[in-house]
Design goal:
Number of domains: 2
Shape: globular
Domain Aldehyde dehydrogenase: 14-472
Largest sheet: 7 strands, mixed
CATH class of the largest domain: Alpha Beta
Number of helices: 15
CATH superfamily of the largest domain: Aldehyde Dehydrogenase, Chain A, domain 1
Structural class: alpha/beta
Strand content: 15-25%
CATH topology of the largest domain: Aldehyde Dehydrogenase, Chain A, domain 1
Radius of gyration: 22 Å
Mean pLDDT: 97
Strand order of the largest sheet: 14-15-16-13-12-17-18
Protein name: Aldehyde dehydrogenase family protein
Pfam families: Aldedh
Number of strands: 20
Keywords: Oxidoreductase, Plasmid
Helix content: 40-55%
Family: Belongs to the aldehyde dehydrogenase family.
Low-confidence stretches: none
Oligomer: single chain
């Protein structure tokens, strides 16, 4: 299918950009161009924000029932086109088509269903115990910046709650993955989202992202991406004292205790690191293993990694696809080299591309053993198929190692002791904990602590991020 990469969606119409800048959108599996993407300027941001500002009073005044009906229309249109999204995501960021359909594109359905359910249950007004009235109001015009690794997942987790709250918005998706954003604009248009409520401007972070963050008529910035990018958004937003929500990086620990089902835990732990070619902020990239079973765990991890295959993302199957870009491939190669230089034991994979995949940004599934927390590969987010294994002696030491990171997004615990699972989960400095292979479902709040961000996305908590609180005194 054809993608309109030469225009922006502003005030309900596809319009030409103010400038002439553009960039090639590259298929990471073939290294071939999918076409030229128009890049926006500050003038394009001004036009989009003006449209959102003009639409705000009318949309903010809509009823909850009206917004529920609108979101249900969006869900219906999206569901009918879900295969289009799977194909687009596979093309633009290299997700294997089976995974792209079952996880990447499916997330757009799962999250929106949860948002609708939570909107139906949310109280926009309530009486406090002291008799005062609490009123929740839309925060206003919102700037939304989304990443390339789970493109539609993050778009829905921002656009859906913003619509549910009665906000208007300007979306700047990653310039690496614009196709799914273009399709989503088409879905919103067909679903009947009023003109000006949703606007789409493509562009680079230092240009379009900065212009959004600094804009005096934008009341809130919601950003998902690197910690460095989140810091830049926060600095720019500070000039106009706007609300900022950030979902940033991670270096998630996976604590494997000796009393768990070791074979299952290691196999699932390797998969939890390598899914999406390791390009997930909550990937289980640090596997901490109790020393009494550490040797066996290393053997199991090596065997599991050696079983994993790399393949063409256009072909169905459970193989791993390429990394998203040449830049990301270079980053992963740099970190693999750093692990070798620091003396970690390379037990699977390593530098370079898998045999037979000289074209495309493919990396080898890589595991390092005998890693310690002083190494770069244990501290820095690699964002690729690289797992590090670290032994521990006691429960307290495991928690100490797990928390020895500037990040605090997600964590994983594997144990046969339910009391230990609860105790350790509460001691970990993270916004989320997955236990014994169970993963958080759609509708649960997603987000972290420390340098992993501020605020939450998904479900009720995600809607609340886009609302302001007013209290009216009892007469």
């Amino acid at each position: 299918m054809q993608y309109n990469m030469s225009q922006f969606y502003i005030d309900g119409s596809w319009i030409d950009p103010r400038g002439s800048s553009s960039v090639n959108v590259i298929n990471p599996a073939t290294e071939q161009s999918l076409g030229r993407l128009a890049l926006g300027s500050e003038a394009d941001v001004d036009a989009a924000v003006a449209a959102a500002k003009a639409a705000l009073p009318g949309f903010a005044a809509t009823s909850r029932e009206g917004r529920i009906a609108l979101l249900e229309s969006v869900l219906q249109v999206y569901t009918a086109r879900v295969d289009d999204f799977a194909k687009a995501i596979s093309l633009e960021m290299g997700a294997p088509i089976t995974m792209s359909r079952e996880m990447q594109a499916q997330a757009g359905i799962d999250h929106l269903e949860a948002i609708i359910a939570d909107l139906k249950a949310l109280d926009f007004e309530e009486t406090l115990p002291n008799g005062d009235t609490l009123v929740r109001m839309p925060v206003g015009v919102c700037g939304l910046i989304t990443p390339w690794n789970w493109p539609i997942n993050q778009i829905v987790l921002k656009v859906g709650p913003a619509l549910a709250a009665g906000c208007t918005m300007v979306l700047k998706p990653s310039e690496l993955t614009p196709l799914s954003a273009i399709l989503y604009a088409e879905v919103l248009h067909e679903a009947g989202v009023p003109a000006g409520v949703f606007n789409l401007v493509h562009g680079e972070g230092p240009v379009v992202g900065a212009a959004l963050s600094r804009h005096p008529d934008v009341s809130m910035m919601s950003f998902t991406g690197s910690t460095r990018g989140g810091v830049a958004v926060t600095r720019d937003a500070a000039e106009t004292v706007k609300k900022v929500a950030l979902e940033l990086g991670g270096k998630s620990p996976n604590l494997v205790f000796a009393d768990c089902d070791l074979e299952t835990a290691i196999a699932e732990g390797v998969e939890a690191c390598f899914i999406n070619t390791g390009q997930s902020c909550d990937a289980a990239t640090r596997m901490l293993v109790e020393r009494s079973v550490y040797g066996r765990a290393v053997e199991l991890a090596q065997a599991k990694a050696d079983e994993m295959s790399v393949g063409n993302p256009a072909e169905p199957g459970d193989h791993m696809g390429p990394l998203s870009s040449a830049q990301q491939y270079a980053r992963v190669q740099e970190m693999i080299g750093a692990g070798i230089a620091e003396g970690a034991q390379l037990i699977s994979g390593g530098p370079g591309k898998p045999e037979g995949f000289e074209t495309g940004y493919y990396a080898r599934p890589t595991i390092f053993a005998d890693v310690n927390s002083a190494m770069r590969i244990a501290q820095e987010e690699i964002f690729g198929p690289v797992l590090v294994m670290i032994p521990f002696g006691s429960e307290d030491e495991a928690i100490e190692i797990a928390n020895d990171t500037p990040y605090g997004l997600s964590a994983y615990v594997q144990t046969g002791d339910s009391a230990r699972a609860a105790r350790v989960a509460r001691a970990l400095q993270s916004g989320m904990v997955n236990v014994n292979g169970a993963f958080l479902g759609a509708g649960s709040p997603f987000g972290g602590v420390k340098m992993s961000g501020i605020g939450r996305e998904g479900g009720r908590e995600g809607i609340l991020e886009f609302l302001e609180t007013k209290v009216i005194a009892a007469p």
